[in-house]
Design goal:
By secondary structure, the protein is mainly beta. The protein has 4 domains: 238 residues, no CATH class; 135 residues, Immunoglobulins (Immunoglobulin-like, Sandwich); 99 residues, Sandwich (Immunoglobulin-like); 195 residues, Immunoglobulin-like (Sandwich). The chain contains 5 helices and 51 strands. The strands form 13 sheets. Strands 1, 2, 4, 5, 10, 13, 16 and 19 form an 8-stranded mixed beta sheet that branches. It is elongated and about 95 Å long.
Length: 765
């Protein structure tokens, strides 16, 4: 009975173990330990149908040393797999090994089983070969190739595609990618997938054609590196070995005939690699797509997505940010899948971009890390190509009706992140309503704050002279000023700004482009805060030539009497649909005989300068929203208006209103204030451009207020009930910025885990 139970448990174990998708192994030599031993770090990536499984590598030949430290974490996961529980999860285990000798050794890992494959792969086999002998050309141990690929690739049957596997070698060696050919060591059955062509020299995999099948092709590859010219490896015990370049098979016989005496010892070893690494992954052939043209169903990468193979320079303890943007006109972008180093993260911004982030640590100095990614889309059955469309993409397929729901994967791109030394000494501190950045002057040779500026230096608080001292450039940046931009993803609010080199701090362009330092603070949206960013916007203080110092106040009022503004502590303000919202903008100036003009107001769910689209309320001085009413004002420097709260279908919890305003000399003809409403179709005929030196009108300034919130139906008392799952919210607007962000050379980030949102302070001169 006990034996039967044991057999049953073993069978269950084997059945549940059929969950392997693939994996890779790389290593990095980290130097000598004080006792003379060698430190080698191994990065083992493994992909299964869950995140709990991992590989167990054991020493097969040589002295592999001992594991002194180990760290494991999840890289990425997806629920778009075709089998089992329809998910895959890639994890990475980083092992530090203390190896007593520099002689070659091998690590192996094996188990049962792959997920169901169509080319007969059952158990999985990994072999990793390491040689720590000192190279005669570099004087250091060999560095393994940096290899990477997405663990799960998919392609429509009718769409031939080429995949360039990441294979970079820091020693400049020749890298070869081949199918495993040693049964039960490099591969299980060693059955090569049909319908594919592998170019070993370029490590490129070409998919041509295969039948549709929910089972995957299991790829069992081996990556090897060979020197460009003959070299020797020297060991601490006084021995040596020799490594020769990889010579194509068709040249071997001729070479051996000419050099059979002098090079016989080398030519017998010419196919022995410096290192040997496993690279395994799963490949799914999906049903035909209605079109193989990138950008229709299959996502197409667009700017600012980095090119395949691009090198990205990074610094220790500074976050690397990779922005990925794609489009698919006949499908909906669903997710991005990634593969990269431990602690890498992915997010989707409010603008639809995917953002990959990773922060190198001190131990990563001098290393190179590949990051691979692809975007997946889900087709929209309502969006189809014209009926009876015939598509030619090497093969003939006819599409005469709406496609079945499908998942489409973009091309795979891989970039290489090179970790270098820290170039700029800086420190960023995140506060509840501001962020402080301190840059060591010694790391900015020849640069002075006269030629450095923030995104928008128009206010005194944004002037780098204000807080800098003899040793540091210091900027205390309010979260709602100095051109600070706000981005949002599903988890965080990110406030960004940058210090950049300019010829003159008041210029909009520069040809003295020496430095760009982007810094930002990240605040979690989740926690005790359930309604998003709830800071009431305080007064905006500006200085303008001819108008001196003046303050813009943008406030909400409970009714048309405009007697007492709503307490800022009550934000976010809540409204029912069609409730009237009363607003007042007022400019308080020390200069008499001035008047305020509100040129435009818009609405959006985020208080971010570059959010799009927005809902226009007032444009060119004209009321666009039909419910807008302008109310009598107490003086010329006031603007009072109201509008009805309206419905916007979305998933937003807060909304903002922003306006473009300016000051004019009262009674002066030809100013923007005197022109009033300008029809956009006639704006080119009636809008007069005036020189600022005339001192009859100020520059335009942008102010915002919020957030507001639409009451849910369960909370509403004055509007009809609405299904809760619609999550209807009132939409409000964002700041429009004149200066955009420039891509950064260095990124600075401090995470704040527990931040309370409070009213932002006013900017004072």
């Amino acid at each position: 009975m006990a034996a039967a139970l044991l057999l049953l448990l073993q069978l269950v174990s084997l059945a549940s173990a059929a969950h392997h998708y693939g994996g890779t192994v790389t290593y990095s030599y980290k130097g000598r330990n004080p006792d003379g031993s060698f430190r080698v770090d191994f990065r083992n990536r493994a992909t299964y149908d869950g995140c709990r499984s991992s590989q167990n590598h054991r020493c097969s030949t040589g002295n592999c040393g001992l594991v002194t430290n180990q760290q494991r974490g999840t890289i990425d996961r997806s629920t778009n797999a075709p089998q089992s529980n329809r998910q895959w999860c890639e994890t990475e285990t980083v092992q530090q090994r203390k190896v007593p000798t520099d002689k070659p050794f091998q690590l192996r890992a094996s188990s049962c089983c792959w997920i169901r494959t169509r080319n007969g792969v059952s158990g999985w086999r990994f072999q990793t070969q390491v040689d720590l002998g000192s190279r005669s050309d570099t004087g250091k141990p060999n560095r393994s190739p940096d290899i990477a690929i997405l663990p799960f690739l998919r392609v429509p049957q009718n769409c031939p595609r080429t995949y360039k596997l990441m294979s970079f070698d820091a020693d400049g060696d020749t890298v070869r990618c081949r199918y495993g050919n040693i049964r039960n060591i490099e591969c299980s059955g060693c059955n090569q997938p049909s319908g594919f062509v592998l170019d070993q020299g370029s490590c490129s995999l070409r998919y041509n054609d295969a039948t549709v099948n929910p089972s995957v092709f299991g790829f069992e590859l081996v990556v090897e590196d060979f020197p460009q010219r003959p070299i020797s490896l020297s060991y601490t015990d006084g021995t040596q070995s020799y490594k020769a370049p990889l010579i194509p098979m068709r040249h071997k016989r001729a070479l051996n005939h000419v050099h059979h005496t002098r090079t016989s010892a080398i030519t017998t070893r010419q196919n022995t690699p410096l290192s040997k690494l496993p690279l395994q992954f799963s490949f799914l052939v999906d049903p035909p797509a209605p079109s193989c043209v990138d950008g229709l169903y299959l996502p197409k990468f667009v700017h600012p997505t980095p090119e395949n193979g691009q090198h990205i320079n990074a610094e220790v303890n500074k976050e690397v940010e990779i922005r990925v943007r794609a489009k698919a006109s006949h499908a909906t972008l669903h997710d991005i899948i990634i593969s990269g180093p431990l602690n890498i993260t992915k997010h989707r911004s409010t603008h639809g971009d995917f953002v990959i982030r990773w922060t190198p640590g001190p131990d990563d100095m001098g290393d190179h890390y590949p990051i691979c990614f692809a975007v997946e889309s889900v087709n929209d059955p309502a969006s189809t190509l014209p009926p009876q469309t015939t598509i030619y993409y090497g093969y003939h397929y006819h599409v005469t009706q709406s496609p079945e729901p499908g998942i489409y994967q973009s091309e795979m791109r891989c970039v290489l992140v090179n970790i270098g030394k820290r170039l700029i000494e800086s420190h960023v501190t995140c506060h509840e309503s501001s962020m402080t950045v301190e840059v060591n002057r010694s790391s900015l040779p020849g640069l002075h704050e006269d030629h450095l500026r923030l995104n928008d230096p128009s206010n005194t608080a944004c002037d780098l002279h204000t807080n800098s001292n003899s040793t540091h450039i210091v900027a205390i940046v309010p979260l709602n000023a100095c051109g600070t931009q706000i981005e949002e993803d599903e988890e965080n609010l990110v406030f960004k700004n940058e210090i950049t080199t300019v010829d003159n701090v008041h210029d909009l362009i520069t040809r003295n482009h020496l430095l760009e330092v982007q810094f930002y603070c990240q605040y979690p949206k989740r926690g005790n805060v359930t309604q998003g960013f709830t800071a009431h916007r305080r007064n905006v203080v500006v200085w303008d030539k001819g108008f001196g110092k003046f303050t813009y106040e943008f406030e909400f009022y409970p009714d048309i009497r405009y007697r007492q503004m709503i307490d800022p502590g009550l934000y976010p303000l809540e409204y029912d649909v069609k409730n009237r919202i009363y607003m007042q903008i007022e400019a308080k100036s020390t200069v008499n005989n001035t008047q305020l003009f509100v040129e435009s107001c818009s609405a959006a769910p985020y208080d971010t300068p570059n959010y799009w689209p927005t809902y226009s309320i007032i444009e060119n001085g004209c009321n666009l929203d039909q419910t807008v009413q302008v109310h009598p004002r107490a003086n010329p420097r006031q603007f009072r208006f109201s509008m009805e709260a309206f419905q916007f279908i979305g998933l937003h919890d807060q909304v903002y209103i922003s306006c473009s305003v300016l000051m004019c000399e009262a009674g002066s003809s030809g100013t923007r204030c005197s022109q009033g409403c300008i029809n956009s179709r006639l704006a080119g005929h009636h809008h007069h451009h005036r020189k600022r030196e005339a001192i009859t009108q100020s520059a335009r300034h942008f102010i915002s207020q919020g957030p507001l919130r639409l009451k849910r139906s369960a909370e509403s008392t004055g509007s009809p009930a609405t299904p809760l799952n619609l999550n209807l919210v009132f939409i409000v607007g964002c700041l429009l910025a004149a200066v955009g962000m420039i891509s950064a050379v260095a990124l600075y980030k401090v995470r704040a885990s527990k931040v309370k949102y409070q009213p932002l302070p006013s900017i004072e001169n």
